[in-house]
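Example record

One chain of 173 residues, shown exactly as stored in the release files.
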Amino acid sequence: MLVSLLDAPPEVLQKIVLFAGRDTPLGPPGELYCLLLTCRTLHCFLTLNSSKLYARIFAQKFDIKVPANRLGNALQDHANVELRRRFTALQCFRRGRVDDEFLPQAFWIAYFMMLENEGLNSMQLHWAGLPTLVNRFLQRHLHEGSVQNDGWPVENETNSLAIALLWLLSSQG
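Predicted C-alpha cells for this chain:
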C-alpha cells in the first residue's frame, strides 16, 4: 500500500497527469504545472526522462498527425519545448495586447498551427481569443504608414501574418 504519492512509480504519476489533463482539453495542462511545483521529487519524476509524457500531452492538446509525419521521432524528443512555445503563444493571445513585443513570434506559431490544423489547433486558438486579437490588431495597425504608401498598408512581417491568420481563421467554416 502506498503511504505517499512519492512512493508511486514515475509511470503512475505520469498517467495521473495524463488522466487529469483530459478534464481540461483546452489551455495549458494546469495539473502538470501544479504537480511540478509541489516538491523537488515530483518535479524530478515528471521532468527527467519524460519525453513520452510530454509527447502524449502534446497529442492530447494539439493536432499531431502533420507534425509527426514531418518531424518523426524528433517531435517526441522536443515535445516539451514545443508545448512551452505553443502555450506561451496562447497566453499572449489571451492577454489580448495588440502591442505585445512577443506578438510577431506568437503569430508565427499560430500560423504554423493553422497550417497543421485538423481541429484541435483551431479550438486552442479560438479558446485563446486569437480571432478577436487579430481583428483588433488589424483595426489598430493596418492603417499605420498607409499615407506615405499611397493608401496601402505597410508591408511588414506582422501585418502579413495577421492578414494570413485572418484568412485562415475565416476560411474555417
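Notes: The chain has a mean pLDDT of 84.
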